[in-house]
């Protein structure tokens, strides 16, 4: 898994690219605070090499909890900036800081 960040000079936004190796998966989405945990708005595109990849524009100077939804299963990102316990989910969420 990988997360890359590109800060825009023209506005307080960071382009965050999420990459998930999941060759056997049919559908991967990134869900989190930045999209109200809605899997339909942030589906990742499957590449020929089997990775899923997508870029989101998120407001800079903040941190966001997120997870991947891989064929209905929740995954954390091993490349996350940190992890945060979430009482609602009863599990840790990945955190990206931008």
UniProtKB/TrEMBL annotation:
Q: Which Pfam families match?
A: CBM_48 (PF02922)
Membrane-crossing ranges are none
**Superkingdom of the source species:** Bacteria
Name the InterPro entries on file: Glyco_hydro_13_N, Ig-like_fold, Ig_E-set
Q: Where is the Glycoside hydrolase family 13 N-terminal domain?
A: 15-74
> What is the recorded name of this protein?
Isoamylase early set domain-containing protein
| Native source species | Sungkyunkwania multivorans
The root-end lineage is:
Bacteria, Pseudomonadati, Bacteroidota, Flavobacteriia, Flavobacteriales
